[in-house]
Write a structure and sequence with these properties.
nine-stranded mixed beta sheet; 23 strands; 28% helix
Length: 453
């Protein structure tokens, strides 16, 4: 009997009978992968068997108690998860190779409540390698069980016998289900393995952390449906050349997706940075042209970020543009506004913009600081090491108000800044902290005149 095959989209998980260059569901190009189907679908078979004994319940009869949470022992991770991990949830931790995913979860094993039983399943490292890393990180106590295995059936059997409180799968791309006739890491393998682990997690009520690698586009490798199945998706970001790491939530069914956690990678593991602004501003040059500080809101936390700009004469007819930490299209828009509204001939210059510390600034409150840093570098005049700027810049050159301005001003004053440039038209009642001079401007021309003369 000929085995049936379908084509599955690696982006959205939809299936089609014939191959197409473009997915008919999500429109992604070259994303359809051939998947062989068995005579029976394991997920649907198990789902129908387990669901036959359950009956629907009235919403008024459901338990209204809050979900059971527990602290992971890592404050920054608890912040991103919304106050701690939830019992019976499955959490996907994604990141580039070598960024620190395994280090974070192994440190969790040593810091979580010692009474909790942990099963650490590794498909990439041997048990001896995990032991050596645990000794380097100082993780040498607690009920931590290590299992180096890639066969899904053996992993699930061990989890049912051990009955852990926390299970860690490192990584999902190495897990292999012998009932699925495809290679580990393929669309069907990742989907079936995750579905089986999710079902076991919900039935037994323990918490599962699943490690997933990312592809060159920066998304979780494997089918997009993987992110839809889990309860929480965490992205561990940062440049391998720098020591700072940022943990952010891409999805969270039990909390906000706006919070971030900041870490520093040291020789003995990851160190939490409860006050990242001081670390990110350390080593800042005094009175150097082309640098300005702004304050962005990440979740409920204000963070000061240093924006550096370098404007130099172009070697060719057209200037080159390069950005790091700021959206490229947003940067070119601000350069055009600066030339059109202020008259600076930046089109014939190379312009480079960089955000120190590996931060990715995606909110418009950094516009004014970027404009001032570019103008400072163009005129070769320093803004002063005691100046910060917060505000959104429009196409007409006007400076618009941003949210949580009082919170931003308090953080700016706490770190010793004496002056701050803000929009003249603000929605909230501004209460300037003691010792902080607030400079109100209506457009970027006034801002440059007030800071650079």
């Amino acid at each position: 009997m000929k085995q049936k095959t379908v084509f599955c989209c690696s982006e959205c998980g939809s299936e089609t009978a014939k191959w197409n260059g473009k997915c008919p569901a999500c429109g992604a190009w070259d994303s359809l992968v051939e998947v062989k189907l068995d005579s029976k679908s394991k997920s649907s078979a198990k789902g129908s068997a387990s669901g036959s004994s359950k009956l629907p319940k009235l919403i008024s009869e459901l338990d209204t108690e809050a979900e059971l949470r527990f602290s992971t022992g890592i404050g920054e991770l608890d912040r991103v998860l919304g106050g701690g991990a939830v019992r019976g949830s499955i959490i996907l931790v994604g990141g580039a190779p070598g960024i620190g995913k395994s280090t974070l979860l192994l440190q969790l094993c040593g810091l979580v409540n010692r009474e909790q039983k942990i099963l650490y399943v590794s498909g990439e490292e041997s048990e001896r390698q995990i032991k050596m890393r645990a000794q380097r990180l100082g993780v040498d106590s607690g009920k931590i069980y290590v299992f180096a295995e890639t066969m899904l059936a053996d992993v699930m059997s061990a989890a049912e016998k051990l009955a852990p409180d926390i299970m860690i799968i490192d990584s999902i791309q190495t897990m292999y289900d012998d009932e699925v006739s495809s290679a580990p890491g393929s669309v069907s393998q990742v989907r079936e393995c995750t579905m089986s682990l999710m079902r076991l997690t919900k039935e037994k009520g323990f918490t599962t952390f699943v490690v997933g690698h990312i592809n060159k586009e920066g998304s979780i490798a494997g089918p997009k449906v993987l992110e839809h199945m889990v309860d929480c998706v965490l992205y561990f970001e940062g440049e391998r050349s720098t020591s700072f790491r940022i943990l952010r939530a891409g999805k969270n069914r039990f909390g906000s997706t706006n919070e971030i956690g900041v870490f520093e990678m040291l020789e003995k593991g990851l160190k939490e940075l409860e006050n990242p602004s001081e670390i990110l501003l350390s080593g800042r040059p005094d009175n150097a042209p082309g640098t300005c500080v702004t304050c962005v809101i990440e979740g409920s936390r204000p963070i000061l970020a240093e924006i550096q700009a370098l404007v130099a004469p172009a070697a060719y007819n057209s200037g080159r543009r390069s950005t790091n930490g700021i959206d490229y299209n947003r940067a070119t828009l601000l350069l055009a506004v600066l030339e059109k509204r202020v008259g600076m001939a930046i089109s014939g210059c190379d312009a480079y913009i960089n955000v120190i510390g590996g931060l990715e600034l995606d909110e418009p409150s950094a516009d004014l600081a970027t404009i001032l840093a570019l103008a400072s570098s163009f005129r070769e005049l320093p803004l002063g090491s005691d100046l910060a700027a917060v505000g959104e810049v429009g196409l007409s050159g006007e400076v618009r108000s941003v949210s949580n301005l009082n919170m931003r001003l308090s953080e700016i004053a706490r770190l010793g800044f004496k002056r701050c440039v803000i929009p003249a038209h603000v929605k909230d009642d501004i209460k300037a902290p003691v010792g902080l001079e607030v400079i109100t401007v209506r457009d970027i021309r006034e801002a440059i005149k007030a800071t650079l003369g």
